[in-house]
Write a structure and sequence with these properties.
single chain; alpha/beta; 7-stranded mixed β-sheet; 4-stranded antiparallel β-sheet; 19 helices; about 40% helix; disordered N terminus
């Protein structure tokens, strides 16, 4: 009588392969090749090893696949440039304020149908080829190769468009132990390693703490009274002007000075307002915006001490995102909001609140100034008709940006013309908050500003002196030097006595000579972007620096 003995599975039979996870990694490889991932090679290799580890039973093997699904989704998100959980949590309250129509619009933009179609084609090819080829072997070898290649540098180096100079070729550059020397605020000679980039950024912020605009203690007896009007436009950058083909709008010829290389230093409205109101000191990190600061940093406070009455006007309520509260608490702007009674709404904002007609808002300011007994004023004016999600009255669909921008530029141009006719002496500064991100990139879709990329923070700044005795030049003076907020404060301090309005001749080149220059560093809550050796670099959530994908 023979007895059948149960056979134990051999060790080789326990290696079951990746199955459908092969397609998961193939999708990642494709996205990495085209620059759409911040790929974490070692983390993915560990995940792959966990999926391949032999399991003694089929039940445990299947359980591992189910447990791996949320891990795989989280890792995929981690490998993208999408905002992290910290950023989503910090913006969660604001998302709740978005209208349903705007959320639907964002979701539609988030879905890339071309990529979905490509993924479907890849899936069909994978299923066909997998019948004859051991895809698991190829995927494992590919991921091993990626890890080996990237031992000496960031994984972004895999991209075919990578142009970073390898450290090994910089024979005469300081080595990584010379971090302190490499971090000099103007010295970018050290190789772009994460340690050197972080040290340079820290040195930049330390050096910025020493910079301050010096305003006079009092105005001289012969000073001439005038008004200062800072027009803080949301969602306007040079990149947006190029996309909308509005660089040649007559508005830009109306100015006396244009700062061509101005960096707004952030991609969001609240921080932008705080930074502008604190323009009299050097640039701070994002977290320091919400900490106490030297009283000399407040631009409008400096002006108030010299007799300028502080004023505030907006074409919106300022409730969303606690914008008005941040201006008061962190920007120290305590002026009451100019009355909006009787001004007609022109648009509906992304949160379904009205956006007032800016032509009427500006005219009210001019009318009020003509009647006021105050000889000097400093007004902060924030306007949002260019913000993403703004729509026509009664509509649920986002209005095209170009017509909105053209209408606003026409209104501003008309306002400047009316100012000229009024006879008032006014220094007008158009200083945008940040761009609209009309054209997305490999890191974020259009309209998203979680990452303050150069195309978002490189904004057009125009300065005009209305009511000067001196004749205006035919074309604005273009300042090409890299500037930021401190240059705004410095320009104001140079003309605060009002003599520029009484002079028979004004040389704008002399007026703008030796303006404070600023390194290009921009920061949001969880992202820092800066220029180093002429190229943009990014750090997300305090991680390693990688070259910004071009």
């Amino acid at each position: 009588m023979s007895q059948q003995k149960s056979q134990k599975p051999s060790a080789l039979s326990l290696w079951r392969g990746l199955g459908g996870w092969n397609f998961y990694f193939l999708i990642k490889f494709a996205l990495l090749w085209f620059g759409y991932l911040n790929f974490h090679a070692l983390t993915n290799l560990v995940f792959l090893a966990g999926l391949l580890l032999p399991m003694p039973s089929e039940r445990l093997h299947r359980l591992r696949h189910w447990i791996s699904i949320p891990i795989g989704i989280g890792l995929f998100w981690h490998d993208t440039w999408l905002p992290g959980p910290e950023s989503i949590m910090s913006q969660g309250g604001q998302l709740a304020g978005f209208s349903a129509a705007y959320l639907l619009d964002l979701a539609n933009r988030f879905i890339n149908w071309q990529m979905i179609g490509t993924a479907f084609v890849m899936l069909v090819i994978y299923l066909f080829v997998a019948q004859w080829v051991r895809i698991t072997v190829l995927v494992s070898l590919m991921l091993l190769w990626i890890n080996v290649v990237n031992i000496a540098g960031p994984s972004i180096s895999l991209l075919p468009t990578k142009e970073i100079t390898p450290q090994a070729t910089l024979n005469n550059a300081p080595q990584s132990n010379n971090v302190a020397e490499a971090a000099n605020a103007s010295d970018q000679s050290a190789p772009p390693t994460s340690a050197n980039l972080t040290a340079w950024l820290n040195k930049f912020y330390e050096s910025e703490k020493q910079r301050v605009t010096h305003f006079p203690d009092s105005l001289p007896a012969e000073s001439a009274p005038f008004d200062i009007l800072v027009i803080n436009i949301c969602s306007l950058s040079w990149s947006d002007l190029d996309v909308a083909q509005l660089r040649d709008h007559p508005l830009w010829k109306h100015f006396d000075i244009v700062l061509n290389n101005y960096n707004s230093a952030t991609g969001y409205s609240g921080p932008a307002g705080i930074r502008l109101l604190r323009a009299s000191c050097g640039q701070t990190s994002h977290s320091d915006l919400y900490k106490p600061v030297d009283q000399r940093c407040y631009l409008f406070d400096n002006l108030a001490k010299l007799g300028f009455k502080e004023e505030l006007m907006m074409d919106h309520t300022g409730v969303f995102g606690n914008y008005l509260k941040e201006l008061r608490d962190d920007g120290n702007l305590q002026a009451p909001l100019m009355s909006q009674t009787g001004i007609k709404p022109a648009w509906t904002s992304f949160d379904s609140t009205p956006v007032l007609n800016d032509g009427e808002v500006m005219q009210r300011w001019l009318d009020d100034r003509q009647k006021s007994a105050d000889t000097r004023s400093a007004t902060f004016y924030n306007l949002i008709p260019l913000h993403d999600g703004t729509r026509e009255l009664g509509s649920t669909k986002t209005a095209p940006w170009q017509p909105r921008a053209k209408q606003l530029f026409d209104q501003l141009d008309t306002f400047l013309t009316n100012l000229d006719k009024s006879g008032r002496r006014v220094m007008v500064l158009v200083v945008p908050e940040h761009g609209a991100a009309l054209q997305g990139d490999k890191m974020q879709m259009s309209g998203l500003r979680d990452i303050p990329s150069p195309s978002i923070t490189h904004v057009p700044v125009g300065i005009k002196f209305v009511g000067m005795k001196a004749p205006h030049q035919g074309q604005p003076l273009n300042v090409e030097a890299p500037t930021s907020l401190l240059a705004i404060s410095e320009l104001v301090s140079r003309v605060v006595d009002g003599q520029v309005f009484n002079a028979a001749n004004v040389n704008m080149s002399v007026l703008t000579q030796n303006l404070p220059q600023s390194q290009v560093v921009s920061e949001n809550d969880n992202a820092v972007v800066m220029m180093y050796q002429g190229k943009p670099w990014i750090r997300l959530n305090g991680g390693d620096w990688v070259a910004y994908p071009q």
